[in-house]
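Per your request, structure below.
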């Protein structure tokens, strides 16, 4: 494993301002109980980014956005640029989350543009890839991971600066379903992704952190985080309560 393990919470389209500030405060109060080899990161809705950034202040909790535009500014109603995310206090952004791919129908071309924009504008990017249940049952997991990763990185000839790119493996069939990939399935997928990164960029590719995302909860987090090629977790529903999210971070 490289660097500190990442414990990331994606709030998705949940929490009002008061609820989000209360959740942030609960997480901040529990940070002292987190092992020093782990870092904690939250992805609130865009409306909460600036107030939560102010609540965090200089404490050891990182703030990320759930999506971004690939444009820096312009006539793009409803979009948020990387410059605006930086201004709101973000250091990181999710790119290609499974819900963006499969619900919003975001194309591989758009994901590639967003990843490029995030990195060029100084945001750490967590690139999400993963297969559906039908693809796994058809034995296509390896092909899907290869295709999605290669497409997103197509224009990147050199690896990003250290720590600026993270990959999250999200088996789509395990997101919000209560199903979790077995430790063997998770390790197999993570090892395959690491091999692809090394094949592309050599040793620097092997240093890119890979997170597991898919119905992570306190009961299974410890086993997932102990796997050789799992460098952290991307948490959905269990990140919406401070107690469960901190339980994962302590697992």
């Amino acid at each position: 494993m490289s660097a500190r393990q990442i414990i990331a919470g994606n709030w998705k389209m949940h929490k009002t301002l008061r609820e989000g500030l209360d959740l942030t405060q609960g997480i901040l109060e529990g940070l002292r109980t987190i092992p020093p080899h782990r870092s904690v990161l939250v992805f609130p809705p865009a409306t909460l980014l600036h107030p939560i950034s102010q609540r965090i202040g200089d404490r050891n909790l990182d703030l990320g956005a759930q999506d971004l535009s690939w444009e820096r500014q312009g006539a793009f109603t409803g979009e948020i640029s990387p410059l605006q995310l930086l201004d709101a206090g973000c250091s990181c952004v999710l790119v290609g989350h499974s819900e963006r791919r499969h619900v919003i129908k975001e194309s591989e071309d758009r994901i590639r543009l967003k990843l490029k924009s995030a990195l060029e504008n100084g945001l750490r990017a967590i690139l999400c890839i993963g297969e559906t249940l039908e693809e796994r049952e058809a034995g296509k997991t390896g092909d899907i991971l290869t295709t999605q990763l290669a497409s997103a990185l197509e224009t990147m000839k050199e690896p990003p600066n250290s720590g600026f790119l993270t990959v999250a493996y999200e088996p789509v069939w395990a997101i919000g379903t209560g199903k979790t990939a077995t430790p063997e399935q998770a390790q197999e997928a993570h090892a395959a992704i690491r091999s692809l990164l090394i094949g592309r960029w050599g040793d620097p590719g092997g240093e890119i952190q890979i997170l597991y995302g898919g119905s992570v909860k306190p009961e299974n987090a410890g086993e997932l985080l102990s796997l050789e090629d799992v460098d952290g977790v991307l948490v959905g529903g269990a990140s919406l309560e401070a107690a469960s999210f901190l339980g994962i971070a302590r697992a």
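Residues 183-201 form the longest helix (19 residues).

Regards,
D.
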